[in-house]
What does this fold into?
Amino acid sequence: DAWNLLTAPGALLMRGVGASGKTVLATALGLRWRSKERGPVYYLNLATFDEENTSELLDALQTLNHPSILV
It folds into this structure.
């Protein structure tokens, strides 16, 4: 399940068609992470992502890269 993927080393990327529950799942996972791990949670909305600004996204991900942070 998604929680096990988050707590293991690696990453979890959610993709899907609109209105399939991605944001609801991300919110629920973020709340659970915050309550159990006590680490900060950040939400990146890639629906409005401009591919011309890839470097900005990579900079943000590198800045936030830490095992106790959920992005």
Q: What stands out?
A: The CA atoms of residues 15 and 68 lie 23 Å apart. The chain has three helices and no strands.
